[in-house]
Amino acid sequence: MLYRLTRRSLYSGRRLRRARADGWRRHAMIEVMKAVLLAGGLGTRLRPLTLNTPKPIVPIFDRPFLYHQIDLVKRVPDVDEVILSLNYHPQHIQAVVGRGEDAGLPIRYVVEPEPLGTGGAIKFVEPYLEGTTIVFNGDVLTEIDLAALVEHHRARRARATIVLAPVEDPSRYGLVETDDDGNVTRFLEKPDPEQITCNTINAGIYVLEPDTFDRIPANTRYSIERGYFPSLVEHGDAFTAYIENGYWLDIGTPAAYRQAHRDILDARCRTRGATLAGAGEPTVAGDASIAPTARLLAPCFVGPGSTVHPDAEIGPHAVLGGGSVIESAASVRDTIVWPESVIGAGAAVDGAIVGRRCRIGEHARIAPGLVLGDDSTLTPYTRFE
């Protein structure tokens, strides 16, 4: 598809006339790109939080997680649409995201009839793709410069580019080996210690050329990692790696989900979507109500419409979702509270995740590691230690 860059179209037949000498700018071809977010997973590692809320829309502070990924996509000027590949609770995601007005890019929904895996999902959306395509796994929080990634892909004239992230302990992941020129040479799925030759793992972000998708079987559960990528290596296709040394985290477990919030609060991850106060300051939404004798220990976040009663203590590393209520003398630290939940008077919650519309009874005690699903109730004086 061709876009005009000046005051009137110079497109004629299948050629672009060169800019004239009167000062018009030279025309250029802009390749229309799509971004695909693989958002159909069950999110089993995050249960019970994902029983009602699909992983792509779990809140990161006061925004759905996938908005943080879309923020990165918006930096690539050629991308004109985000395609969400869905299967699990698609209606919940559609209700939250809509047509993309808040996301900042048009959204297309493609719902798989059954889970098709990462490769099968890409094949299923193939009819909607035009040219070079960015693909994101639905659980990756990162600061990657996608425009630089696409530039790297094009400069190498690659058929596929995979983003690799260095990790301290590669034994828990599938490793990706490369040669001295940055070409992918081998995949090792959770290797034994003696097999480890590198520390770079698949970061779940790719740039792909759809003309290679004929190797992916249609309407079949298929893994891009175990099938499509090894086939590129076997066929000698131009398959290059892009090392991302910046922030990267798979948020797919409760511990990692809490870590993501800690990292953003501590400015280790500077996602564009989280508008936080400066270092050492609590972040409070404009319509939150904070009692004069309440204590906010930075870093912490108090969401819109929340109420913090007298003598309550919030933080450090506490995140209160919109409409939550922290009653008198309650303490919330290193905890994520989802919207519309109530922490009773004198209760102490440390290192937990509290789902939507929960009620923590008065003087309850919650030690690190507890995850409460939506609409849970703990009676007064309950103790989890």
Write up what this structure looks like:
The chain is an alpha/beta fold and 385 residues long. It folds into two domains: 33-255, Spore Coat Polysaccharide Biosynthesis Protein SpsA, Chain A; 292-384, Hexapeptide repeat proteins (UDP N-Acetylglucosamine Acyltransferase, domain 1). The protein contains six helices and 33 strands. The strands form eight sheets. The chain has a seven-stranded mixed sheet, sandwiched between helices. α3 (117-125) crosses α5 (224-234).
Query: What's the count of strands?
Result: 33
Structural class: alpha/beta
Spatial order of strands in the largest sheet: 7-6-3-8-13-10-14
Q: What is the CA–CA distance across the termini? A: 61 Å
| Poorly predicted runs | 1-29
Count of helical segments? 6
- Shape assignment: elongated
Q: The CATH topology of the largest domain is what? A: Spore Coat Polysaccharide Biosynthesis Protein SpsA, Chain A
Name of the level-1 CATH class of the largest domain: Alpha Beta
Rg calc: 24 Å
